[in-house]
Predict the structure.
Amino acid sequence: MKISYFWPEMREACELGGYIHRKHVLGSNRIKAGKPLAWSIAFLLIVTAAQAQDASQLDKLNQQIKQLQEDFQKQQRELRENFERLVREQQAQIDALKKQLEASKTNAPAAVVQPPQPVVPEQRLSTATVGTPATPTEPWSPTAPIRIGSAQNYINLSFDALVAAGTSTARDIENLQLGGHDPKQRGFTVQNLETVFDGKVDPYFRGQANVVLQIDPHGETTIEAEEAYLETMSLPWNLQVKAGQFFSEFGRLNPTHPHTWDFVDQPLVNGRFLGEDGLRSAGARVSWLAPTPFYSELFFTIANSQGGTAFSFRNEHEGMPFLGRPSTDRGVKSFGDMLFVPRYAASFNLTDAQTLVAGVSAAFGPNSSGGDTDTQIYGVDLFWKWKSPNQHAGFPFVTWQTEGMLRRFEASAFPGDLVTPALPRETITDFGLYSQLTYGFRKGWVMALRGDYVFPDKKALYETIVGPDPDRANRWRISPNLTYYPSEFSKIRLQYNLDHRNLIGTDHSVWVQFEFLLGTHAAHKF
Amino acid sequence: MNGLIASTDMKKFFFPLLIALLPTTGHAKLNVVATIPDFGAIAQEIGGDKIKVTSIARGTEDAHFVDARPSFIRVLNQADVLIEGGAELEIGWLPPLVNGARNAKILSDAPGHVILSRGIRLLEVPTGSVDRSMGDVHPLGNPHYWTDPGNGKIIANTLTATFSRLDPANAAFYQANLKKFDERIDQKLAAWTKALEPYRGTKVVTYHKSFDYFLDRFGFELVGTIEPKPGIEPSPSYINALIPRVKGAGAKLVMIEPFRPRKTPQYVAEAVGAKLLLVPTSAGGNEKGKDYSSLFDYDVAQITAALKESK
């Protein structure tokens, strides 16, 4: 195993050696060949000189020969000196390489005690012309992320558990909370048990898979293949491709996992438009990092448009009516029946301590209210962060995050059956937004406040026939919370929700949430 | 007529835009990105005007908890060289930036990605069984090695090798700058050692284990830390146990970086009869320590002044 590590160095050392060897042979040949050649020239010159009639010319020639000899000897001396210097230099490099090899060999076994020693310059491990500095000689240690495949980093493994407990005054808690991982019952809820695998696939891709276990209110354990995708590492023209099953890059919150959220539950607008499990499907995404002086990136996703994770699209809503109508899956007949999700995001450093990220997103795709009806969702998002330029462990900071969305749902005409009356064709428009503020006031402590508001554009035609729809009704929610992070790997959160639903009433909920993370050190995306 | 005006206006508008969008080509300076300003400062001394240096973290902040601001994705996208400290110093924020940058030159095995810890003997490499109940112990050893100016020379040497390999035309220039840097650090190191020589063996308390290499270099002794474990905040009971322990050991100084909370260290210093000192560990950590050697000039002057007073 180790041999392969040292191979490049060894090869380089050999090549260096070979180079010196060749040089040596060549050099000495040249010296040997040089002498007779010079003498022959000298001889020819002498002969020519002897034939010369003029004595002064002879003198001149003699002088020339002398000069020539001196020049030649000088050249020879320089040549030898150069050569010797070269040999010395190369030898020094070989020695340095040997030292490096030895040093890395002694470093190789796990957990070697390295006595605190001042490093003297002779111990330098690399010299100016020595090859790769990246000698992976780091020993594996038990605190390193759990990695499968010898001491190599073939797969990083981590496990995250998110559990909530609490209660609510709502009679219908399961309808109160719109997120699939939100607590939906009095008592304890196992929100999310997430196992993450990630690593470099080969020189071209990195891969990631998030497998989620969840225990539903009936006590059944469900498993969710939440994400599994590969991502290119260095395509030309600043492009990056992601393919597999993944959260669509729509807005700011949708592509993230519940344990990274600042609140116990999902914002109402995400639940109402993008569904309880967020907008995610099997598909492919290409993104382009634009060559602007600031960060700006263009994303374009093409994905499947069916199922509960394409909530406002080809979703059969488990046989329940949606926006007044029963759903029927129309299948995929053409390219236009796929889900398209474009997004543009840009970021600006407002000051040394303040950063702004702004984005616009859209999602276009067919819906299952009829054979030719589509849904369009548009979103804008804004994230602002101030972080102290003198931060200690990342604190203090203030963030402000807001997302607004609009959904246009083309509902097809329904002829009417035993259950549902006849309904006309119409376009139903809804709005929603949330805005949240967090303040990390001292290490490990964050307080936050979120406001949610979802509302319809106007009463839909179907509502005048079948009655008002609670899934479109005006609703707002105010959620203050306080989170304590004992370390980067755990948290405890207390949250209160004041929740008002038109047609239903006002409810109060209190949730405690805790989280722990094992394995790979989480890196935080901005 | 109107159309003509419109089209010239369009040209006026689009032409600069087009130029701005054109990728900068040609044999420009080496574009070097350093994770922390100390590496950036050393890189600048070696590369001079042949390179352009950007440092991601600021000298005034905690290097473990830097924000992965999206602007750095763009910076890394353009980079020829990425200088990383390694040993998990930047593990919490660098990987997403490198992933987003889509730049083959700075991927983990590329010649443009330098991991400096690999050339350095790290202190406190854990032995035996360790887990996170011991705090955020770095399994590869203590990553704050640049606080020993001797290691600064190794860093300079590694960077010279990298720059020379990527830009062979200027190799002699880099080599000459390395020589100058080494000579200056040697000279300074002798002066710093001389200044601190009378205080060899002084017992100190630090906040995080970020001064260990510095203390080791100048023969100071660490007798306790304000943090009970790496990355874990102190509890009152821990502080109450720490005070008699470090007082018994004869602690003279409580050294913390300027970005740490002051209250608890101040309390400990007063209770122990030691002096609280704000000592930056990074170039740019305050206005006096702008580059790598002036950082130590400032720190050494601070420490000698404080110890002279307390004698």
Q: What stands out?
A: Chain A touches chain B through 78 residues (CB under 8 Å). Confidence is low (pLDDT under 50) at residues 1-34, 47-53, 105-145, 147-151 of chain A. The radius of gyration of chain A is 36 Å.
